[in-house]
Specification:
Elements (H helix, E strand, L loop, with lengths): L1 E2 L2 H11 L2 E2 L6 E3 L5 E8 L2 E13 L17 E5 L2 E4 L4 E11 L4 E7 L1 H4 L3 E5 L7 E10 L5 E4 L3 E9 L27
Antiparallel strand pairs: 1-13, 2-8, 3-4, 4-5, 5-6, 5-8, 5-13, 7-12, 8-11, 9-10, 9-13, 10-11
Catalytic activity: dCTP + H2O + H(+) = dUTP + NH4(+)
Family: Belongs to the dCTP deaminase family.
Pathway: Pyrimidine metabolism; dUMP biosynthesis; dUMP from dCTP (dUTP route): step 1/2
């Protein structure tokens, strides 16, 4: 009943493959020595990376963003080492890491301060008990300027919270609609 530490996260990765790929410590530099926005294991969480897959919202077709009838023309898909999000706009992406959440744990995921201090807000819904998949990441540029997000670098921190008791019905048992998601996943009903 509380937030799990780096030791617990490390054990769950070794025993249950909770995070793949897994970085044992905070990575702040590439092999060539250039700096990156940090990712990997931290004291009480795991800093996930954003992949090279992005869906950037666009108004080219004047579509309405409707969660019950999502129009795929609402965004432009791209694969790149970085993503430029237009002013006051939004992009979807996915994590590099694949997660397997234990039955008695729920997560909260918060954007890294490096991006938050630039007006880039990351929203990720909780990873529910026994959810498994790549995380879809919602990235908002709240500034009046274009904003750059770097692929394969840190974007948000996942905090693992122990429940007081296991849930009676897990996300997997409910056949959750985002179970085993692979790519950037748009709204489903």
């Amino acid at each position: 009943m509380g937030v799990h530490s780096d030791d617990w996260i490390r054990q769950m990765v070794k025993k249950h493959r909770m995070i793949e790929p897994f970085e044992e410590s905070q990575v702040r530099k590439k092999v060539d020595g250039s700096q990156v926005i940090s990712f990997g294991l931290s004291s009480y969480g795991y800093d996930l990376r954003v992949s090279r897959e992005f869906k950037i919202f666009t108004n080219v077709f004047n579509s309405v963003v409707d969660p019950k009838a999502f129009d795929p023309r609402s965004f432009v898909e791209m694969e790149s080492d970085c993503c430029i999000i237009p002013p006051n706009s939004f992009a979807l992406a996915r994590s590099v890491e694949y997660f397997r959440i234990p039955r008695d744990v729920i997560t909260i995921c918060l954007g890294k301060s490096t991006y938050a201090r630039c007006g880039i807000i990351v929203n990720v819904t909780p990873f529910e008990p026994e959810w498994e998949g790549y995380a879809t990441l919602e990235i908002s540029n709240t500034t009046p300027l274009p904003a750059k997000v770097y692929a394969e670098e840190g974007l948000a921190q996942v905090i693992f919270i122990q429940a007081s008791e296991p849930c009676s019905i897990s996300y997997a048992e409910r056949n959750g609609k985002y179970m085993y998601q692979k790519g950037v996943t748009v709204p489903r009903l």
